[in-house]
Design goal:
With 132 residues, the chain is of the alpha+beta class. 30% of the residues lie in helices and 17% in strands. The chain has four helices and six strands; from the N terminus they run αααββαββββ. Strand 5 and strand 6 form a beta hairpin. It is globular and about 40 Å long.
């Protein structure tokens, strides 16, 4: 649901970032996630679609209201098996800037711009991330 409307590639991008977080050996995601997919997805403030409300209003597009299809399961299985989209690096963050430009750092200089795929900008960790 985090990549709603982004097609198969968009879903694979998000799945790649999620699994990078699950498997990253240091920093916040290693500490909070402890290698657990559920911990990463449900980490407070990370994925809008994991919340049942947003800004004090019900969030109808949450993981509890979605009806996954075969392609959703196939992409999840693909990512859990260790696959990543080529050129994603160790991306731990992504966002859609709704513009042609990606900002150089994300967030608070713990990530540096690595690549843009479709509408999303992807960021690899800087050395500052390791102390998070």
């Amino acid at each position: 649901c985090e990549a709603g409307g982004e097609g198969d590639i968009g879903m694979a991008e998000v799945a790649s970032v999620v699994m990078n977080r699950v498997r990253y050996p240091v920093g916040e995601y290693a500490r909070v996630g402890q290698g657990n997919l559920r911990n990463i997805i449900l980490q407070t403030g990370q994925f809008e679609c994991a919340r049942t409300s947003s800004n004090g209003r019900p969030n109808p597009q949450n993981i509890y209201n979605m009806n996954p299809t075969g392609i959703h399961y196939a992409i999840a299985d693909w990512a859990i098996a260790g696959n990543r989209l080529p050129g994603m690096g160790d991306a731990l963050w992504f966002y859609n800037p709704f513009s042609v430009n990606c900002r150089p750092n994300f967030p608070s200089n713990v990530g540096y711009f690595y690549t843009r795929i479709g509408e999303h900008c992807f960021y690899n960790p800087t050395s500052e991330y390791y102390s998070t």
